[in-house]
């Protein structure tokens, strides 16, 4: 009953309370077979606020999950509670993708892929039927976000180049600018820059 209270509080993400319960459990039951699992949960409680809090650092959260995996993958708690790591990694991926969509920073996408690489590894230790499909869906969401960011960056670049062309003074060679506009416009249209359809596109023609 006491151990269930500990794991329930961890599952509720009440990190400080969980640490106090872990310390008390270890003090009251030093010979209990679950005591070797306590360092796993202490590290999870340490990383938890960075992972789940909106004010936490997703970068530090990912570093914390990697630390847990590296330090405790041979701990009996790992195979029994790796779902906690899986949940933490899906949360981090969602946060990194949200940041990427908001800021268009490729670094956030790279972090999402890094978290998914570890998610794949953690998934191998899980036996639940839903895990493979969920893992694949997270991968597809990263692919979707990467495409959205790529298109958004290309749109921004087209607008910047079009403005640059309009403001260009007499004698400025506009061919390189127009060539780059064509290339970037093709990116968010999903076609080749040499595709004739581009010339017929009303949006491109109006630039």
Chain-wise SSE layout:
Layout: H1 2-11, H2 15-28, H3 38-52, H4 58-72, H5 76-103, H6 106-123, H7 131-167, H8 175-189, H9 197-200, H10 202-205
Helix pairs in contact: 1-2, 2-3, 3-4, 3-5, 4-5, 4-6, 5-6, 5-7, 6-7, 7-8
Give a short synopsis of this structure:
This protein has about 210 residues and is mainly α. It has helices at about 1-10, 15-30, 40-50, 60-70, 75-105, 105-125, 130-165, 175-190, 195-200, 200-205.
N-to-C SSE series? HHHHHHHHHH
Shape: elongated
Structural class: mainly alpha
Work out the helix count.
10
Radius of gyration: 25 Å
Distance between the termini: 69 Å
The major sheet is characterized as: none
Fraction of residues in β-strands: under 5%
Mean pLDDT: 89
Helix content: over 70%
What is the number of E strands?
A: 0
Uncertain runs: none
What does the model show?
By secondary structure, the protein is mainly alpha-helical. Helix content is 77%, strand content 0%. The longest helix is centred in the C-terminal third of the chain and has 37 residues, at 131-167. The chain is elongated.
